[in-house]
Amino acid sequence: MTTTEGLDEIESLVDVERIQRHIDAFAALTETDVEGDGVTRLAYTPLERRAHALFRDHMAGLGLQVRTDAAGNTMAESDGTSAASAHGTTSVAALGTGSHLDSVPSGGRFDGIAGVVASMEIAEIVSTTGLRHRRPWRFVAFAAEEGARFGQACNGSRMVAGLTSAIDAEQLFDASGISMGDAMRSVGLHPERIGADRWAPEDWSAFIELHIEQGVVLEDRQVNVGVVDAISGSTRLAIRVDGRASHTGGTPMHLRRDALVTASRCVLACDELARDPAHHGTRVTVGRLTVHPGSITTIPGRVDFTVDVRDIDSDRQRRTAEALIARFRSIADTARTEVSFELMGDTSPVVLPHWLVAEIGVAAADLGEMHQVLPSGASHDSQQIAHLLATGMIFVPSRDGLSHVPEEHTTAEQLAGGTRTLLRALRRLDGRP
Length: 433
Ligand code: HGY
Ligand code: MN
Ligand code: MN
Known about the structure:
This protein is of the alpha+beta class. The protein has helices spanning 16-27, 46-61, 113-129, 155-160, 166-169, 180-186, 217-221, 259-275, 314-334, 354-366, 381-385, 412-431, and strands at residues 65-68, 74-78, 94-100, 137-142, 204-212, 225-231, 233-242, 246-247, 283-285, 289-292, 298-299, 302-311, 338-347, 350-351, 371-376, 391-396. Helix 10 (354-366) packs across helix 12 (412-431). The chain binds (2S)-amino(hydroxy)ethanoic acid and manganese (II) ion (2 copies).
């Protein structure tokens, strides 16, 4: 048993091999019958629940109280010394850390997992050393963070933040027409009880999520720890182009209403607009495009595609989405095709509290970790939690900036460095009045 006198030694207990074992254990929970390799563990599937069970069993094994809420988020709690004082039970607001356990199709081993593993490592150290902490410390595995299945991202954290209701869950569908509510019920969750599990802001002091950067800044700067000051928003559109399907041989060019030609011009318009200096900083991507009927000898009569607009500037993000819709309509008019759209998700960018950015920076500096303040290009659960309480993020490097692909990689040593900074930041926050 390590004494807790040498408090500064506590962070040195972060164990690289243990971290690696947790990473490998989660990576093994993947669909095997999908194209491509990498990890596939989609929102509200049995595999995601198995990952939550792995997290839950580890935390329960450390003696922590663990609970899974109606949305499928799993939370473990280590009582602080304030939980029971000489004058009966006086509880102070809790500190929290965690991230998500679902993945995109054929994704990586670290997106979301890094933050959950960091929380497991910290819980292990707290439990085995008897590290005294005044506030309750809560370790959270969020459900359904990726928007890859239902279009909307950060569903479990949106539900505890009161941003997605039970009714909303019945109106979000995956590509095969299954509603989020039905998917939740199919894995034993209770969407009808989402409202009862909302987090009360007064119960919380601060929350810090550790996550892989999913970009190249830390690697380029050769810095191991990132402190996030702003998180990009995301406006996601489902676009449908209707033309007229007909014979590829019998239909002369001047009589065609080719939905794929229109969609192709729309895709190029997305790239052109995002590269326009007036939209500098905006990122626009068409990630999914489906051609109907998809036959070699039939002119496409319909095309469905998705547009993902990302920005840390809220106004520019929305203006870009509006400008794209106007461009699509003009392209369709010229080609005598029709275009319609549906809003799949719309999350505002958030600026994280400067005092918390500073605290995390001091924690890194305390440990001699080089760190860099930077914005996040990706969306995160912290973005939703930031609607409720003071929220911060710690980044660890992504090799070649790659993410959402099997090549996604962060070394266990880099993850250990971020975990040490996270532990020190929690201890500093624990001591704040
Ligand atoms: O899509 C995102 O930005 C995050 O990885 N869910
Ligand atoms: Mn993520
Ligand atoms: Mn992701």
